[in-house]
Amino acid sequence: MAVDEAILREVGAHRAPPTLRLYSWARPTLSLGANQGAEVVNRERLQALGYDLVRRPSGGRAVLHDREVTYSVVLPLDLPELPAGVIASYRYLSRALLAGLTRLGVPVDLYGPHAPFTSGAVRWAERSSAEEEASGSRRGRGRAAGAACFASSSWYELIAGGRKLVGSAQVRRYGGLLQHGSILLHLDEGLFLSLLNHEEQDDHEEAIRALRGHATALDRVLGREVAWQEVADAVVAGFCQALGITLEPGTLTAREQELALMLEGEKYGSDSWTLRRCEFNH
Amino acid sequence: MYPEDLRYSSEHEWVKVEGNKARIGVTHYAQSELGDVVFVDLPSVGDTLVAGQAFAVIESVKSVSDVYAPVSGTVVAVNDRLSDSPELINQSPYEDGWIVEVELSDPSELDNLMTADEYRASVAGEEADGGED
């Protein structure tokens, strides 16, 4: 998260070029949306498993970063090719992700007003997504599945077989746009939901079934294990193909590295940021 | 969509001046570009706003965006209704969805803002740019 924000600050200030970053996590990590209540997290369980907890700078709800390809795209807001507005920019970047996943042979669609609906679950998600987003982000209370990013789809997110395959979130700040997200290689619904607090009346098995109806992963869609590098290569190719751009391999600039270290120490590595919204603290 | 009695910033905030005070919110254009607003992080009464700097955060479905102060001043009122009903930003950007009221520290900054006509023309350009897919 610190690296993503460091890139955002530098790209927004035109000190670094528009950037696509693909990465994975040293340890499985649960991330919360910028304004999501931390009380949704079962911290004892997280600790017992040795998993980390972070809070993203971006919106949305909880994601378990484990077996996935994590992507982040950072663009200056004044980039001429970037359409104004959140939904339009999602659509723009989703085209690149769609092209990449299509190269892998994934039958992927953009979720949206014109997307083909192949399951009742997605229709349900369409009706309730704004409402769920609201409850998940603002209160962080209620059913554990409602606190999960993959429990519903937003417009122009990527779905396969009617189920969400890529979960994404944005932040616009420092003159730049950061969109990052998870392309799931594998999804263990039971493990993920065990990291979230449930209300007593919640039925864990029912919650697992519900999440399975809304979310999927590449191994399930393709019927085989998919390697991280294979997906990363396809995503890079998809960005070049769909957006008509050239990507050059690069590393963080010295300034980005410095900023990332500072942000990790002062923000993302500290409880004052990670637990800044938590009803139990008040 | 853009009331004549307001002044507008290039960052899509509006200002309604009454004496030495100004009420601030985001424009119809801003709320439509953000999508459904689900959370608003408000400043506190007594906080200082500096023109051009972020003073509030709006989270819409899937995006977190800063709100930039169109003028400088001291916050004298915040719209607490937004804590429970952030959707007011979408439903009523100029009335129920106002964000803060400030006491202006430098009224001459108002001269840097746009009239409704000027703002309408500026977003017409952006809408045309962003409308192409």
SS content category of chain A: alpha+beta
Strand content of chain A: 15-25%
Q: Can you summarize the main beta sheet of chain A?
A: 6 strands, antiparallel
- Average pLDDT confidence of chain B is 92
Low-pLDDT segments of chain A: 115-143
Poorly predicted regions of chain B are 129-133
Biggest β-sheet description of chain B: 6 strands, antiparallel
How far apart the termini of chain A lie comes to 26 Å
How many distinct beta strands of chain B?
Answer: 9
- Helical content of chain B, roughly? 10-25%
Average pLDDT level of chain A: 86
Q: How much of the residues of chain B is beta strand, in percent?
A: 25-35%
Oligomer: heterodimer
Describe, in plain words, how this protein is organized in 3D.
The complex is a heterodimer of chains A (282) and B (133). Chain A has 282 residues and is an alpha+beta fold. Chain A contains 10 helices and 9 strands. Chain A has a 6-stranded antiparallel beta sheet, with helices on both faces. In chain A, helix 1 packs across helix 9 (254-268). The longest helix of chain A has 20 residues, at 120-139. The two termini of chain A are 26 Å apart. Chain B has 133 residues and is an alpha+beta fold. Helices cover 23% and strands 34% of the residues of chain B. Chain B has a 6-stranded antiparallel beta sheet with strand order 1-2-3-9-8-5. In chain B, a hairpin with a 2-residue loop joins strand 2 (13-18) and strand 3 (21-26). The radius of gyration of chain B is 14 Å and the shape is globular. Chain B starts with 6 loop residues before the first strand and ends with a helix. The model of chain B is unreliable at 129-133 (pLDDT under 50). Classes of the chains: A alpha+beta (282), B alpha+beta (133). Strand 8 (163-173) of chain A pairs parallel with strand 7 of chain B, so a sheet runs across the interface.
